[in-house]
Amino acid sequence: MADKGAVYIRPDQLTLGIYVCLDLGWMDHPFTFSQFRIKSEEQLRQIRELGLQRIRVDPTRSSSAPLPLPPDTPQHPSPSPPSTDPSPELIAKRDRIAKLKARVQSISQCEKYYLDAAKSISNITRNILSRPEETLAEADSLATQLASSLLAEQEIAVHLMNDKVLGEEVYYHSLNVSVLAMILGRAMGLSEQDLRLLGMGGIFHDLGKMRIPHKVLQKADNPSKAELDFIQLHTQYGLEIGQKVKLPLPILRMIHQHHEFMDGSGYPQHLKGDAIDPLTRLLTVVNTYDNLCNPVLVVNALTPHEALSLMFSQQRARFDTKALSLLVHTLGVYPPGTVVRLNNDGVGMVMSVNSAQPLKPHVLIYDEQIPRNEAMILDLAQETDLNIAKAVRPAQLSTAVYN
Predict the structure, then answer these.
(1) Angle formed by the axes of helices 278-293 and 192-204, to 10°?
(2) Are 82 and 49 in contact (CB under 8 A)?
(3) For the segment 48-61, what is each residue's pLDDT rounded down to a tens digit?
(4) Where are the domains of the chain?
(5) Could you read off the pLDDT of 281-313 as tens digits, one per residue?
(6) Number of other residues whose CB lies within 10 A of the CB of residue 188
(7) CA of 250: how far to CAs of 44, 137, 189, 198, 302, in Å?
């Protein structure tokens, strides 16, 4: 909708550098955005072919002034007839939207599966003591299913790790750790047996938290030393529960050691280096990453980009070098799920990485004028004028943008 103080000019007054605001439906023009600065003669031609009598412009965002009207220009000219056939650019745009809808459908299916998997983890945790054999079989089956389904849609799965579709944070976190650990394990060339163990380790790694009151786990601001010490007992509690229900030894190690660090600064035993189980070293990297991105208090959440930067630049000594490097390589500079601000002030979410050009991922663009189910996914490698300016924390955005 146009502002009361809007400025309009004739199409023949347009020139390079003018910032236009097209008052058309998004599907009625060939451009990626409805508001932009004209940068080429081709854009000028396409705008004039829209058949508009007048065009809204924003002088404050323009780098040049409109061309003057000729003296004999009629005051109320007849609009140029719009082209009856869609332009190649508009056809291409519609094709991109069709592909996007297929992509959105895949995301929706994965999101439902992710939600169901998190609920399964909730049930597994709830029933582990009362029905251990049945529950262990369910966990084994879930890990196998995760390996064959979500790992096939790896980038969508990583995107969902940062998309709050579920309120039960403990189970959602366990799923995140399980899936990402298996993604890294597969990239590392682990056997199917080790992948399944790794997946189950992710499912059960916080098992001991069932003995800690929810209000203690969810306390976000300034927990006391006594509360922190209590929370740290979850590794010992988890080991005791795991031994009671006869979990396999590799999973017991992951439960007990997933807060141990390579430099000996972790807990509960301050293990160092090779004293830490190899599968656990991988799980520890993933667990730390997800805790940074999805803490109890959302305002403390780091962007995936910030979390990787912190782990690599300031905490590197804590982690297995190979596992940390693999995490960075797999997720890229801007991991899927990262909310970014572009150099045109637009906001989007990274959907998939470009290994050849890490700074040019595929980005889902937020535009209040575009219906959510028609939102455009841009390949920044093909958008020469668009770049990521910075990653944005979710707490810095309105709910309308982030959702």
Answers:
(1) 50
(2) yes
(3) 988 899 999 999 99
(4) 1-68, 91-331, 339-402
(5) 999 999 999 999 988 877 788 888 899 999 999
(6) 16
(7) 64, 16, 18, 9, 31
**What is the value of pTM for the model shown?**
0.78
Supply 69's token pair: 């009207």
Q: Among residues 184, 75, 154, 181, which one has the least CA distance to residue 353?
A: 154
- The answer to whether the beta carbons of residues 171 and 124 sit under 8 Å apart is no
Evaluate whether 199 touches 178 at the Cβ level (below 8 Å).
yes
| Amino acid, res. 262 | M
Contact between residue 59 and residue 86 where contact means Cβ atoms under 8 Å apart: no
E strand or H helix at 289: helix 278-293
Phi then psi dihedrals of residue 60, to 5 deg = -70, -20
Lowest mean pLDDT, pick from 17-26, 99-108, 131-140, 250-259: 99-108
- Please measure the distance between the N-terminal and C-terminal CA atoms of the chain and give it in whole angstroms: 22
Strand locations in 39-180 (E):
55-57
Please determine, for residue 319, whether its predicted confidence score (pLDDT) is greater than 80: yes
Q: Side by side, which strands form the sheet with 55-57? A: 7-9, 55-57, 19-21, 35-37
Domain 91-331, CATH: 1.10.3210.10
**Quick one: pLDDT band at residue 102, thresholds 50, 70, 90?**
confident
